[in-house]
């Protein structure tokens, strides 16, 4: 049986009463994590768990496929908002059996056009950056690293310290993906 929103709200009440520790306001100068991690929204990819990350240790940006291009604004915002202080490393983590490896941009667009044909012009302009096939998984990480390292708005020190990995959903292990560029 699926969890309902009301059940989640009840869990929040319990959390607020028994576990929550007040967080500092931005004006109180919380310490900034050195890492920003781009990862997939897939529920099988528990980044916080497989890296044993505590709340204050990393910014985690999740989107379909874990693609950097789809959330570059988040990185640019954080680095600008923090005035380049704190963030030192960008981590890109894609994973095996990702839905993005089983889809193409055209396939997603075709599905959307079938559902809402009156918006075909808008749909044609969308970019999902799907991977298309499991064989291109490692290359998708390299593409994201290339995108980071060549993006003219990404701070050079941050781009130079970008790292990429593939997380195996069966073994739980991260494998580094090299980038020569």
| Overall shape | globular
Largest sheet: 5 strands, mixed
Percent of residues in helices: 25-40%
Strand content: 15-25%
Radius of gyration: 19 Å
Number of separate strands: 5
Q: Give the N-to-C terminal Cα separation.
A: 49 Å
CATH superfamily of the domain at 32-103 and 131-177: Carbonic anhydrase
CATH fold-level assignment of the domain at 32-103 and 131-177: Beta-carbonic Anhydrase, Chain A
Sequence stretches where pLDDT stays below 50 over 5 or more residues: none
Per DSSP, the total helix count is 7
CATH hierarchy: architecture of the domain at 32-103 and 131-177: 3-Layer(aba) Sandwich
Give the ordered list of helices and strands: HEHEHEHHHHEE
Q: Helix/strand/pairing class, anyone?
A: alpha/beta
CATH level 1 name of the domain at 32-103 and 131-177: Alpha Beta
Rounded average pLDDT: 95
Catalytic activity: hydrogencarbonate + H(+) = CO2 + H2O
GO molecular function, one term: zinc ion binding
Family: Belongs to the beta-class carbonic anhydrase family.
Binding site for Zn(2+): 40, 42, 95, 98
């Amino acid at each position: 049986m699926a969890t309902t929103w009301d059940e989640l709200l009840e869990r929040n009440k319990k959390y607020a009463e028994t576990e929550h520790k007040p967080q500092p306001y931005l004006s109180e100068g919380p310490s900034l994590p050195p890492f920003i991690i781009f990862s997939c929204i897939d529920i099988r990819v528990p980044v916080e768990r497989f890296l044993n990350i505590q709340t204050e240790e990393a910014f985690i940006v999740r989107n379909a496929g874990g693609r950097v291009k789809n959330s570059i604004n988040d990185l640019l915002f954080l680095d600008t908002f923090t005035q380049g202080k704190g963030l030192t490393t960008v981590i890109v983590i894609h994973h095996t059996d990702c839905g993005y490896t089983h889809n193409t941009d055209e396939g997603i667009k075709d599905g959307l056009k079938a559902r809402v044909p009156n918006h075909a012009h808008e749909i044609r302009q969308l970019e999902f950056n799907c991977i298309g096939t499991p064989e291109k998984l490692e290359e998708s990480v390299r593409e994201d690293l290339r995108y980071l390292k060549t993006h003219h708005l990404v701070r050079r020190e941050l781009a130079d310290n970008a790292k990429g990995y593939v997380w195996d959903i069966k073994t739980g292990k991260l494998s580094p993906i090299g980038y020569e560029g």
